[in-house]
Write a structure and sequence with these properties.
- Helices cover 77% and strands 0% of the residues.
- The chain has 171 residues and is an all-alpha fold.
- The termini are far apart.
């Protein structure tokens, strides 16, 4: 326990903490609060990083699939091999999308956990209800929801376009 590890912070005979113990507790809570706010900020930034990674990798993979589609005849690649290559590249892009959505979901779960811990600290140090607890039901207000929807919609669109237009044209 923190109070017993610091000299002069023992409990008084009436069971209340001494002034030194209160100061140590308040200082510790403040440092923990700062850490939590930093982590919340980092989690928020990570969603943008994940989207950038998704966009970069997906653009590269889909670009490679389109390059294969445009150049397979010139390079004397068998049409079946070209189709398999295009589908394979799209499968890898889909895995990147799934991985990105998983990271975003994990980040949202971490954010909820940090926000609840922030509320615990403010409830104890400032007073109950100082910070309203996050509500997972408000997911429609979170930008992570729309980033994930964008990723899902873009992958569905890519598959529809490839299956409808690209693969039938590889002869």
């Amino acid at each position: 326990m923190i109070g017993s590890a610091v000299e002069g912070t023992a409990m008084t005979t009436s069971g209340e903490m001494s002034h030194d113990a209160q100061t140590v507790r308040r200082d510790f809570a403040l440092e923990r609060y700062r850490y939590i706010l930093q982590q919340i900020h980092t989690v928020n930034e990570n969603a943008h990083r994940f989207l950038a990674i998704y966009q970069t990798l997906t653009t590269t993979l889909v670009g490679a699939a389109l390059t294969l589609f445009v150049g397979y005849e010139k390079w004397a690649i068998d049409p079946a091999t070209a189709r398999d290559g295009i589908v394979g590249l799209l499968i890898v892009a889909t895995l990147v999308a799934i991985f990105t959505i998983t990271l975003i979901a994990a980040g949202a779960a971490s954010w909820l956990d940090y926000r609840n811990e922030e509320c615990d600290i403010t409830d104890e140090m400032v007073g109950p209800g100082f910070r309203e607890r996050p509500k997972p039901a408000n997911f429609l207000r979170w930008y992570e929801t729309y980033v994930s929807l964008f990723i899902v919609c873009s992958m569905v669109l890519m598959w529809v376009l490839v299956v409808t237009f690209v693969l039938p044209a590889v002869k």
